[in-house]
């Protein structure tokens, strides 16, 4: 969502390069937890 902003604009908006945005919809909670666990394990 902030890809259109350059580094200076992100800094001015208080958006750190380490920001993680996690959007949740109507998915099953167990599926979301498993997906998040898998993604974090890859770090």
How does this structure look, described?
This protein is mostly helical. It starts with 6 loop residues before the first helix and ends with a helix. It has one domain. The model has no long low-confidence stretch (mean pLDDT about 90). It has two helices and no strands.
Give the tally of β-strands: 0
Number of helices: 2
The description of the largest β-sheet is: none
User: What number is the mean pLDDT?
Assistant: 89
Structural class: mainly alpha
Distance between the termini: 22 Å
Report a brief summary of the structure.
By secondary structure, this protein is mostly helical. 44% of the residues lie in helices and 0% in strands.
Summary keywords:
43 residues, mainly alpha, elongated
Write the layout of secondary structure elements.
Blueprint (H helix, E strand, L loop, with lengths): L6 H6 L16 H13 L2
